[in-house]
Amino acid sequence: MSETENQDLLAMTHLGEEPSKYMKSVTPPIFMNSLHVFDTVDEYFSVDIFKDEYYYGRASNPTVAILEKKLAALEHGVRAVAFSAGMAACTAAIMAVCKMGSHIICLKESYGPVQHLLDDFLIEKMNVSVSYVRGTKLEDFEEAIRPETDLIILESPSTLLFSVIDLEGVAKLAKEHGIKTYIDNTYSTPVFQKPLDMGIDIVMHTMTKYIGGHSDLSGGVLISRDEELMRGLMIQRDRFGSILGPMEGWLAIRGLRTLDVRIRRHYETGMQVAEYLEKHPKVKKVYYTGLKSHPQYELARKQQKGECGLMSLEIDGDEKATARFVDALNIFERGCSWGGFESLAIAYTYNWTQEQQDFLGVNRSIVRLHCGLEGAQNLIEDLKQALEKV
Ligand SMILES: *Cc1c(COP(=O)(O)O)cnc(C)c1O
């Protein structure tokens, strides 16, 4: 095991926790408070929220701070700032980096609600402009860069069609132009991919997925090596009122303790399921970066130490046949999230307009699967009987 992997395991289990401060309890308390009180006026006015000192729950919370220490260490950043959802974290990063008139480059394959945020709010109300690019070639970014470009929004692999972005290449290009880079690293988790080591400026995770891991919390986090940016984000979070709740912070700490074992099992199961599906006559195509047939398999191997349980497939049939397959699944439930213990399926493009299909170059027969922890054999049996309905 590498030095990094050893450090990661300690971060996920113990780092940031001080049992001697809370009666030697092996788990930290949930600091379920909205404020802290003081003995004197001077004490109140000398609080420094950047040094683990606390005065008001909207600014910072001790349980959330334990989680943030772990995540900063896991991503090799200087500080992490946790938010009430992945989207709150994403919004915070955009607001911290951009201004009126900024130009943003965003991947066509980026998470849908991020595109809605850009299209419906930032373009509409804040005079921001956006170029959507495929991003699988560096030239896609080079051609889109303008003098007013301030931010590149990345996701690698993406979570519908699983394209991989050359992170070192994009980071280098962006630095030459004074542009900040942001990546949604939720797919890989910090266990399998560390974008800051490849020169990316800001990492985001939605903790709602694998970090929480049990489909029982919403949360997001930003991590970076830029101390000034991170301090600014802590203040911004206070202004916007978007801090992660203490209960959610505690659940995410608990989720992290088993992240390493869970993600490795999701990977193992994902590989077996993807290999099964790839050979099935009713499956036209499988989108999974663990498969040798993936067009960017080599790049994925260079950047990622593993995969997770998320993949897509194209059914050999129309959207009605695709829906019959999804409806016939027994263990896989029908739902839009992923990263929990449970397997999920969604007919992602079922009702897409022609325009939406053309934008990504897909038809209406794309199904996204999340392989949970029910075991590869059970999942393959379930897929097998449902594919017979196509
Ligand atoms: C779910 C998801 C998000 C949003 O996270 P929330 O916590 O629901 O706001 C962002 N990116 C990806 C890739 C996701 O799957």
Automatic annotation (TrEMBL):
Keywords: Pyridoxal phosphate, Transferase
Modified residues (N6-(pyridoxal phosphate)lysine): 209
Keyword hit for RNA-binding: no
InterPro entries: Cys/Met-Metab_PyrdxlP-dep_enz, PyrdxlP-dep_Trfase, PyrdxlP-dep_Trfase_major, PyrdxlP-dep_Trfase_small
EC number annotated for this UniProt entry: 4.4.1.2
Pfam families recorded: Cys_Met_Meta_PP (PF01053)
Keyword Transferase: yes
Gene Ontology CC annotations of this record: cytoplasm
Domain of life: Bacteria
Obligatory cofactor(s): pyridoxal 5'-phosphate
Catalytic function, reaction form: L-methionine + H2O = methanethiol + 2-oxobutanoate + NH4(+); L-homocysteine + H2O = 2-oxobutanoate + hydrogen sulfide + NH4(+) + H(+)
Record-stated family: Belongs to the trans-sulfuration enzymes family.
Protein name as catalogued: homocysteine desulfhydrase
UniProt source species: Schaedlerella arabinosiphila
